[in-house]
Write a structure and sequence with these properties.
Length: 67
């Protein structure tokens, strides 16, 4: 999986959301960030032919975040 851009995602959220106060808060409390994590994992699984598991992770992410 390619998670090297997560720090940039967190920094972008911090820069554009005045309510975000820390990286830890973004990681723990922001469903949009959680959705990115679920999507990246599901996409990696799908590309590596774990189709059912990728679909399951995608649905779990939707259920967990409501997005």
């Amino acid at each position: 999986m390619d998670f090297k851009y997560l720090r940039e995602e967190i920094d972008t959220i911090l820069a554009h959301d005045p309510a975000a106060r820390s990286r830890l808060e973004v990681v723990l409390c922001y469903p949009g960030f959680h959705t990115l994590l679920f999507h990246r994992l599901a996409h990696w699984l799908w590309l590596n032919n774990w189709l059912l598991l990728g679909r399951l992770v995608s649905n779990l992410g939707r259920f967990a975040t409501g997005i």
